[in-house]
Write a structure and sequence with these properties.
Number of helices: 4
Shape: globular
CATH class: Alpha Beta
Helix content: 25-40%
CATH topology: Aminopeptidase
Radius of gyration: 16 Å
CATH superfamily: Gcn5-related N-acetyltransferase (GNAT)
Oligomer: single chain
Structural class: alpha+beta
Length: 185
């Protein structure tokens, strides 16, 4: 009997381990069937059907943004399997909120074929530690409203955000604002 084990390695992004083509094989694909939408002030799961996917230009633009933001003090992490990036997380460096307690998890994705294998949980834990290093007490997530995305964040312990980042809410009005308490990390 042959047993294969996967070793997912989480690394903090720097110019030695990440470049403009690091996301070239990343698979953003997601077929969305249901999304959470706010109706009369309350979230409801509604039929909303579309497909998310990125082409090489979008992947390279995102890689460029990750490089730029990490060079400017933001923190990013990758999840790698056999050297290939299968997930990534990006934290904005600037705390916000009434008491500057929130750090924004501005990007958080796992490649389609590697979802539900543990990479997301490992990345989320790394992002939480990074948010604490940036001075955060809470991680803020402007979460994609797809049923599966919200479920994943809930399994990590995220709850509805007590404070809403107006800039992010305006930019992505269908996103669901969530937070994760970093106390105790």
């Amino acid at each position: 009997m042959i047993v294969e084990t996967m070793e997912i390695i989480i690394s903090k992004v720097n110019s030695d381990n990440f470049n403009i083509s690091s996301l070239d094989k990343f698979n953003r694909f997601q077929r969305v069937e249901e999304c959470w939408r706010k109706v009369n002030g309350k979230y409801e799961l509604l039929p909303v059907r579309y497909t998310e996917d990125w082409d090489i230009e979008e992947l390279r633009a995102l890689a460029k943004r990750i490089l730029s933001e990490t060079a400017d003090g933001g923190i990013a992490y990758t999840a790698r399997l056999n050297g290939e990036v299968i997930g990534f997380a990006l934290l904005d460096k600037t705390p916000f909120g009434t008491e500057s307690r929130y750090i924004d998890l501005s990007e958080f994705y796992v490649s389609a074929e590697y979802r539900r294998l543990g990479a997301g949980g490992l990345l989320f834990k790394a992002a939480c530690r990074g948010a604490v290093a940036l001075g955060g007490q809470k991680l803020y997530i402007s979460a994609h409203s797809a049923k599966e995305s919200i479920y994943a964040y809930q399994t990590y312990g995220c709850v509805p955000a007590k404070e809403i980042n107006g800039r992010l809410a305006e930019k992505e009005p269908c996103d669901v604002p969530l937070e994760f308490d970093l106390d105790g990390l």
